[in-house]
Amino acid sequence: MGRPELGAGDRLVLKVGTASLVDATGRPDDDRLATLCSGIAELKSSGVDVILVSSGAIAAGLTPLGLSSRPSDIPSLQAAAAVGQGRLLARYARLLGDHDHVAAQLLLTQHDFMHRQQYLNARNTLDRLLSLGAVPIVNENDTVATDEIRFGDNDRLAALVANLARAKALLLLTNAAGLHEADPRTHPDAPVIDEVVRITPELERVAGGRGSALASGGMASKIAAAWVATFSGVGVVVADGAAPRVLQRVAKGETLGTYFHPHPKRASARRLWIAFAQPPKGTVVVDEGARDAVVARKKSLLPVGVREVQGRFEAGDAVDVATSERGVFARGLVRYSATELNRARGRSTTDLARSEVIHRDQLMILEGDT
């Protein structure tokens, strides 16, 4: 099965990182932005709806505030984002306007994905913007989303937006040619992996560490984003943002960068929301019998199969479910706090107030068929 071509009515989520938008001084580069907007306009002329997830707000706010480099403290990051977000959008509005397209700003936080009504409201807004011909430009609301600034990046946001938008493809532009067989910083001759059918722990280890000083992501975050998006039924391309006509070539299905095939069975929006809308707060390690019950027999996870509790979490938090031999295989919303589960683990449900650790309806399997 080859790479998909995008045509009229298809939706593409395009994520551009800071490193692909700024010049050597760290300031937004108008030539790069103009090339990007020209490519978006060409896709839209063929009937493809484009949703842009753009980094760069913090970088755009550094110079106006007299900052020479990206700060590390949260208030300074928020201040830079508050100044830079408007300046970055103004550039997009002007450059897209040169092609008679309207730019629309959409700022999201984890709250918009964690709460069902907010999720639906965001989807309705996105659908309406696209129906009116606008180009939605999405970013995290960095002025208030402290957790995302400290730990996150826009790769994961783009993957969640791809699910929200019911996109056909997600294109992650970076300053690398794609995912290499080894870290190109230490193995410069490592070839690019053309296609990935299944993301494995070995593949995640190949992704290596983090990216440039001005950005918060790296190839590891691209892998994590591809993991989310492919479970949404979305094909993912990781490619070099500086490659000539990269948007148009990806839309034509040309071999460029690394392509991650979508999962063969698209998970429901609810299970995707459970698994990926919030980061896991801990890990519940279970025995093989519990794993078999959850994966093969589609059962809820019970306390009797729990062997170890890792991390600090409360009832209602997302947690990973793993075995000590085979690693993480599921994620769900736990009904116990970590303290409560430590007391209940290994015990029969007959003498416990709550039966399930994670109810089947609050659980998503992360391997095989969902």
What order do the helices and strands come in, and which of them pair?
Elements: E1 11-16, H1 30-45, E2 49-54, H2 57-62, H3 74-97, E3 103-108, H4 111-114, H5 116-131, E4 135-140, H6 146-151, H7 154-165, E5 169-174, E6 195-196, H8 201-206, H9 219-231, E7 235-240, H10 246-251, E8 258-260, H11 269-276, E9 282-286, H12 288-295, E10 306-311, E11 318-323, E12 327-333, H13 338-344, E13 363-365
Parallel strand pairs: 1-2, 1-5, 2-4, 3-4, 5-7, 6-8, 9-11
Antiparallel strand pairs: 7-8, 9-10, 11-12, 12-13
Helix pairs in contact: 1-3, 7-9
Short summary:
The protein has 370 residues and is an alpha/beta fold. It is built from 13 helices and 13 strands. Strands 3-4-2-1-5-7-8-6 form an eight-stranded mixed beta sheet, with helices on both faces.
Characterization of this structure:
The structure is a single chain. The protein has helices at about 30-45, 55-60, 75-95, 110-115, 115-130, 145-150, 155-165, 200-205, 220-230, 245-250, 270-275, 290-295, 340-345, and strands at about 10-15, 50-55, 105-110, 135-140, 170-175, 195, 235-240, 260, 280-285, 305-310, 320-325, 325-335, 365. With about 375 residues, the chain is an alpha/beta fold. The chain folds into two domains: about 10-270, Carbamate kinase (3-Layer(aba) Sandwich), CATH 3.40.1160; about 280-365, Archaeosine Trna-guanine Transglycosylase, Chain: A, domain 4. The strands form two sheets. It has an eight-stranded mixed β-sheet with strand order 3-4-2-1-5-7-8-6, with helices on both faces. The chain has a five-stranded mixed β-sheet with strand order 10-9-11-12-13, sandwiched between helices. The longest helix is centred in the first third of the chain and has 24 residues, at about 75-95. The chain starts with 10 loop residues before the first strand and ends in a 5-residue tail after the last strand.
